[in-house]
Amino acid sequence: MATFEFTRPAPFGAETTYRITNLLDTFRMTVIARYQSRITRKALNQLTDRELTDIGLLRADIDRI
How is 9-28 classified by DSSP, letter by letter? Predict the structure, then answer.
């Protein structure tokens, strides 16, 4: 039984397109993570000190989350 291996070069601009797409996806994920972090900090800031203590946090811990 014979096997054949074919290697073809990537089409012109394919690597550049991949890198740009990857860069845009990384940027999108960073924006989403920052948005979710902001929403979480906002929700935690609305809790009382007693409620924060119940979940094991201090008010000073909110900025690190």
Answer: PPPTTHHHHHHHHHHHHHHH
